[in-house]
Amino acid sequence: MSTASRAISGKGPVSAEALRKVQAAVEQLRFRPSSIGRSLSTQSLGIIGIYTPSFFGAYYGTILQQTDIELRAIRRHVVVASGCGDGNRRDETIEAVKFLIDRDCDGIVVLAHDLREEDMQLLQAMHAKIAFLNRHNPHAPETSFCPDHFHGGELAAQALLAAGHRQLAVISGPPDAYDNRARINGFFAELERNAIKRDAVRLVTSDFSREGGYAAAQQLLQGERDFTAVFCANDEMAVGALSCLQRRGISVPEDVSVIGYDDDYTAEYATPGLTSVHIPMREVTRNAVRWLLNLCYGSGHEIVREFPITVSYRATLAGPRWPTR
After folding, report:
1. pLDDT at 322
2. Among 268, 310, 304, CA closest to 286
3. For residues 261 and 233, is the Cβ–Cβ distance under 8 A?
4. Which domains are assigned to the chain?
5. Segments of the chain with pLDDT less than 50
6. Any long-range contacts for 128-134 (C-beta under 8 Å, 24+ apart)?
7. Edge-to-edge strand ranges of the sheet holding 229-232
8. What is the phi/psi pair of residue 17, to 5°?
9. Contact at 8 Å (CB) between 174 and 152?
10. DSSP H helices in 10-147
11. What is the pLDDT of residues 97-113, one digit of tens each?
């Protein structure tokens, strides 16, 4: 029995003759190893769960893909839960994570920008091996993997100011999302340091989707256009805003400059190419998953917690064509 186990699992010494016999028996019997039996013997399902608010878009796709890459490298697997239902985003997140806990995942990655601090404490009490993406956890900093979104917002403002823009508009994501608040606050803090007050900037709130970005741009264009540049709090909304501007006959960047946020893989192929604040989410995700692998399976990955943010300059940013105040 032990020889057959080693031959099937590929772990441990087995002679060539014994391996041949086991493989022949497996084929004849159409044998398939039981994941339930294996989990009982190892006390592990070999599965990491991940919660993401959506399956759609380049941003979430990057996170899901990188998680799968890391797990497949050590012959582990991922199960994904997404928010759904009639509740708010916070409640959906909590319910989805509880679902993953009930599935006995060895560890769980949570895209946590909709959670409160007390929510993270609650979930940690239910399952100790949780990594939080895009959210600082002051009660357990080692569980947090989050770029400095406040600084990302500052960089967006600096890029527009350096190009000469002072009449600005903002398309914000959901105001209760942690990462959105941080980047918007960073953006306005940099403007304040340059004598541009918050109430002098047009701001429309949206939902991080392309449709939301399109609708927000329509709202900004009602009446006389009094801005030369728009900061969009993610690339999905920026692509929607670009579409709206172009359909209204407003040239980018000649009439209006646009800067996005995240620099996901669609930004380079937008028309025109989208200038965007680069958030290294692939590296953030990689380190969160590897931290869990170390915790769950004794891997020896080196973990990085500092994630430099930059600006990727492309064709949607230029100086204003008409004078600014």
Report:
1. 66
2. 304
3. yes
4. 2-33 (no CATH), 42-147+281-308 (3.40.50.2300), 149-279 (3.40.50.2300)
5. 35-36, 38-43, 324-325
6. 129/292, 129/295, 129/296, 130/97, 131/107, 131/288, 131/289, 131/291, 131/292, 132/288, 133/63, 133/109, 133/284, 133/285, 133/288, 134/178, 134/179, 134/284
7. 202-205, 168-172, 229-232, 257-262, 275-278, 310-312
8. -65, -45
9. no
10. 16-29, 35-42, 58-72, 89-102, 117-126
11. 999 999 999 999 999 88
Closest listed residue to residue 173, CA positions, set 182, 165, 164: 182
CB-based contacts of 98: which residues, under 8 Å, 6+ apart? 123, 126
Burial class (CB in 10 A: 0-12, 13-18, 19+), 90: middle
Maximum distance among all Cα pairs of the chain, rounded to whole angstroms: 84
Instruction: Please give the single-letter amino acid code of residue 176.
Output: D
Specify the pLDDT at position 9. 67
Inter-helix orientation angle 178-193/149-162, to 10°:
40
Task: State the pLDDT at residue 164.
Answer: 97
What residue has token string 């903002």? Answer: 170
* Residue owning tokens 């009982």: 40
Tell how strand 202-205 and strand 144-145 pair up: unpaired
Residue 140: name the closest of 169, 159, 115 by CA: 115
**Pairing state of beta strands 144-145 and 229-232?**
unpaired
Task: Specify the pTM.
Answer: 0.84
Q: 85: alpha, beta or left, given left = phi > 0 and alpha = psi -120 to 50?
A: left
